[in-house]
Each structure stands twice: as C-alpha cells, then as structure tokens.
Amino acid sequence: MRTSTTGRVGQYAALLAYLVFLAFPFLWLISTAFKSPRELGSLHPTWIPRDPTLDNFRQAFDEQPLLRAAGNSLVAAAAAAVIAVLIATPLAYVMARHRTRLAKAATGWVVVSQAFPLVLVIIPLFLVLKNLRLINSLTGLVLVYVVWALPFALWMLVGYVRAVPTELEEAAAVDGAGRLRTLVSVTAPLLAPGLVATALFAFITAWNEFFFALVLLKTSDKQTLPVVLTHFIGAEGVADLGPLAAAAFLATLPSLIIFAIIQRRITGGMLVGAVKS
C-alpha cells in the first residue's frame, strides 16, 4: 500500500512538473507582452508586471500589418485543413478496410515521409510551384500545406476508421447501401471526433508554419503571421521585445480558442453503444 501511494505521488509530481515546463514559456510571454520598455530592461525581471501597459500591443499593430498577416494565415490554414481531411478520409477508409500489401506499404511510406527534413523538399516544391506560376501565392502555399499535412492526417484517420465496428457497415450493406453511401452516411458521422482532431492538427500545423511561407511568399501583402513576426527583429538581430511578445501572444490565441471549443468533441467517444449485442 505504501509503495502504491508513493508511486502515485511520484506520478502526480512528474505530471505537475511537466505542466509547469509547458506553461512557463507561455506565461512568461504574457508577462513580457504587458511590461513597459523600462521594466523589460530591468536586471531583476519579475513575473507580474509592476506597471502593466497596452503600449506594446498598440506599437505592434502600428509597426506591422498583423491583421492582414493573420487573415492570410487563417485562409491558408483553414483551406489546408479542409482539403487535407477531404482527401485523407476516403484514402484512410480504403487503407483501413483493405489490408493488402499495397496498403501496408502505403502506411509505412506515410510514417517514413514524416522523417524528411524541410530543406530536402523545399527545392523540388519551389520548382514545381514555379512551373505552375504559384510562387508568391496563397494558393501555392495551401497546396504545400496540404501535401505536408496529408501523410500524418492519413495515418491518424486510418486508426480512427479501424475503430469503427465493421458490423455497422455490414448492416448498411444488407440494407442495400453501397461503399460510398456507407462511408458518407454510416462511417463519417462516427468519425467526427477523428475528423475534428485531424483538421485541428492540419490547421495548427499550417498556422504555425514558417519555413515554407518564408521561401514561397515574396511580397508583404501575401506574408503569413509567423513571417511577419520576424520583422520585429532588427538587422543586427536585436528584437523589439515588447511588441514581439504582444504579437506572438495574439498569434497563439486562435490555437487556444480552437482547443477550448472542440476539446470535448476530441475526447468524447461517439462509438459507445453503437454496436448492440
């Protein structure tokens, strides 16, 4: 009993330490965003700003087109998430229900492709988009985001499809439903938590992505939010810390809001009680 209690206390302590480790950068970012320039230069920094100010937020919006950049990021991320899910869903269904050697090879390739570094694929992608005249275009950036998110989205959805009882599809087939009708009317509704989680992954990946946007977008009117954030760093590498922290804090809000809204759908099980004995 004593060993079990000690182990449980150790688990909770480790979990608490991990949560503190994750929360520290974000809490420090919020603190920095509300500090005055004089306090930011202090040799004795504090967690809570002594004289909170909104000047950093005003300066951030005055110096850089944050709203336009956020709009570009929103369009690119939302489009990439929707397209990736639409493409991955039928592919995942086929790979999950038909476990052939080809499907296993495709699954292995999906996992291996995630190990490719960005530098390895940026030149081929750049040349392809150049031939398609999609450089400096949000359309081209969306295509890149879809290609980059699709393997992991497919891998995620395969697991969700396999969790759907085949008895439901067999019952639909007995009633005369075809494969497409079964996928749309039976399987897809049960996949809602998986579809939401996959779309969320694709959205956040595209929203936070920096390297592709930096290389493919040339003019300031097309740049996304992560690229615009780098403009708060001067030519000599000196960061305008207050406005940068304020802009970075605003850039994290969409991800936090989305998680807060749909976290119940992600964690909730929709398959409970779906199959009757």
Tell me the layout of helices and strands.
Elements: H1 2-33, H2 37-40, H3 55-63, H4 66-97, H5 101-113, H6 118-131, H7 138-163, H8 166-174, H9 179-190, H10 192-208, H11 211-216, H12 225-229, H13 241-267
Helix pairs in contact: 1-13, 3-13, 4-7, 4-10, 5-7, 7-10, 8-9, 10-13
Structural class: mainly alpha
Largest sheet: none
Kindly state the mean pLDDT as a whole number? 82
Order of helices and strands: HHHHHHHHHHHHH
Number of helices: 13
What is the 3D shape?
globular
Strand content: under 5%
Number of strands: 0
Give the terminus-to-terminus CA distance.
39 Å
The percent range for helix content is over 70%
Ranges where pLDDT stays below 50 over 5 or more residues in a row are: 269-277
Rg from alpha-carbon coordinates: 23 Å
Would you write up a description of this structure?
By secondary structure, this protein is mostly helical. It is 74% helix and 0% strand. It contains 13 helices and no strands. The longest helix has 32 residues, at 2-33. 29% of the residues are buried. The model is unreliable at 269-277 (pLDDT under 50).
List descriptors.
disordered C terminus; globular; 277 residues; mainly alpha
Brief account:
With 277 residues, the protein is an all-alpha fold. Helix content is 74%, strand content 0%. 29% of the residues are buried.
